[in-house]
Specification:
Elements lengths: L26 H8 L4 E5 L5 H15 L3 E5 L5 H9 L7 E4 L2 H7 L10 H4 L8 E2 L6 E5 L3 E8 H8 L15 H13 L1 H4 L3 E3 L10 H19 L13 H13 L13 H9 L3 E7 L3 H6 L7 E4 L11 E6 L3 E4 L5 H16 L1 H10 L17 H10 L4 E3 L9 H16 L4 H20 L1
Parallel strand pairs: 1-2, 7-8, 10-12
Antiparallel strand pairs: 3-11, 4-5, 5-11, 6-8, 6-9, 6-10
Length: 445
């Protein structure tokens, strides 16, 4: 599964909205309508097509501003976008998934500096920025975090054991401390009633993305930050491959499952192991709470900490937080239509009805300050929000710059061969570094 186009499954609970919530919220839209502006949004998420159409109808009824929403079929967004931009009245609002998409559509993306959606971002660094100008040209409207989800009950039991490596989960702020804890847990798994410190690292299609995409993101993001990389590079150096090996080895040695059996393990297996209390740690993200809840877990049983792997200044590291869903404005649209579109987006993130639609009807977790008072029953989202409000250094989603799906597939295969003992770590390094340049060149031809 390619996670960065995975459906967001985080569900937020919001307070009941007043019947008259729409009244008084459409003044900016009315102005746009008087000027003849209209909105045309090409949506990339079929699972919320009905919700977008509903809120568009409500906005038009309230303000008189025409809002058209069309949704591309699953897996066809780029093709549909190309077709729509060739029409006489192309979308005024569209979506990109990251820097690679931006390179294709950069001539159509408007500067969003003066828009409310950019000004209301909790962290402006989350915006998608032009490599040429440094200006924000994409604003994320869905945000997620991934890290190491932990079972609070198991950790509470562990820290009470004689000679425990830490006194609290808060003491785990480096790879060395994480390794000390999980190695000790593995040795004392019978005392803890677990099968392993970590859930199984499955390598089928339902689970491999956690490693060839999300775990691989960790060394990529630090390398890109070191080198000032903000757009898809032609090559990577693999600066932090030793740290990548650190954490992957830990997943393999302190696991519920022998290395020889990992190829048959699935995401359902990992989810079940964690929910049943068979493992203390589970690499996944905010979207996984629904599955864990459905498996019987309570909100007060889970938390999330960063993925530590031996990076410099690791105690300052936060969760990996980002988006693969960015709103972009078509800079070739008329001034009237651009204004109408900006006003519509402002209403979506500031009005009570707009926020209810995004948070409750669509189930999105957003990065906007205007949603601070929207309550969530997702403990992993709570962990994300706490992390974003801290002074931790957020790990970005640099996997959105990966040159191709084949790069990820080849890396995953190399990691599986290493896990099974049929190949060495040099195969993983080659897949990571050499295949990047190869895939980059192949896609530029």
């Amino acid at each position: 599964m390619n996670h960065h186009v995975r459906q967001v499954v985080t569900v937020l609970a919001t307070a009941a909205m007043a019947v008259g919530a729409l009244s008084g919220c459409g003044s900016s839209g009315t102005t746009a309508n008087e000027e003849g502006g209209k909105v045309y949004f090409l949506n990339s998420k079929p699972e919320v097509s009905d919700q977008w159409k509903q809120i568009a109808e409500e906005y038009t009824k309230e303000t008189g501003v025409p809002v058209t929403v069309e949704t591309a079929a699953a897996g066809t967004y780029q093709q549909t976008l190309k077709s729509e931009f060739a029409k006489s009245e192309p979308p005024t609002l569209f979506q990109l998934s990251g820097p690679v998409d931006l390179e294709t559509w950069k001539d159509f993306t408007a500067d969003l500096t003066d828009t409310d959606i950019y000004k209301q971002l909790k962290d402006p660094a989350l915006a998608l920025k032009s490599a040429e100008t440094g200006k924000p040209v994409g604003v994320p409207f869905v945000i997620e975090s991934f890290g190491l989800i932990y079972n609070k009950d198991i950790l509470a039991k562990y820290v009470k054991l004689p000679g425990a490596a830490v006194k609290s989960v808060n003491d785990i702020d480096s790879f060395d401390k994480l390794k000390a804890v999980t190695d000790d847990m593995q040795k004392r798994k019978d005392d803890l009633g677990i099968k392993g410190a970590f859930t199984s690292a499955g390598f089928d299609s339902s689970s491999i993305w956690r490693y060839d995409t999300h775990l691989a993101n960790m060394p990529l993001d630090r390398e890109f930050k070191d080198d000032g990389i903000t757009a898809e590079p032609a090559t990577v150096k693999g600066t932090y491959m030793p740290q990548f090996k650190n954490i992957f080895d830990l997943y393999l040695t302190d696991s519920t499952t022998p290395r020889s059996q990992l190829s048959g393990k699935t995401s359902d297996d990992a989810n079940s192991e964690f929910a049943l209390g068979e493992a203390a740690f589970y690499q996944n993200g905010t979207w996984s709470w629904t599955d864990l809840q459905n498996a019987g877990m309570e909100a007060d049983q889970v938390g999330m900490i960063p993925i530590y792997m031996g990076m410099p200044d690791e105690a300052k590291q936060g969760l990996a937080t980002g988006s693969a869903q960015y709103w972009c404005l078509n800079k070739k649209a008329t001034d009237k239509n651009l204004k109408a579109t900006k006003d519509f987006l402002k209403w979506m993130i500031t009005s009570e009805r707009g926020k209810e639609s995004i948070a409750k009807d669509m189930g999105f977790t957003t990065p906007f300050k205007t949603f601070d008072k929207v309550k969530t029953d997702n403990p992993l989202v709570e962990a994300m929000n706490k992390d974003m409000d801290s002074d931790k250094d957020r790990v970005g989603w640099s996997f959105t710059m990966v040159p191709s799906e084949r790069w990820k597939d080849d890396l995953g295969n190399a990691m599986l061969e290493y896990a099974q003992g049929t190949a060495g770590w040099d195969g993983v390094e080659k897949a990571f570094v050499d295949n990047w340049a190869k895939e980059y060149q192949a896609n530029k031809q």
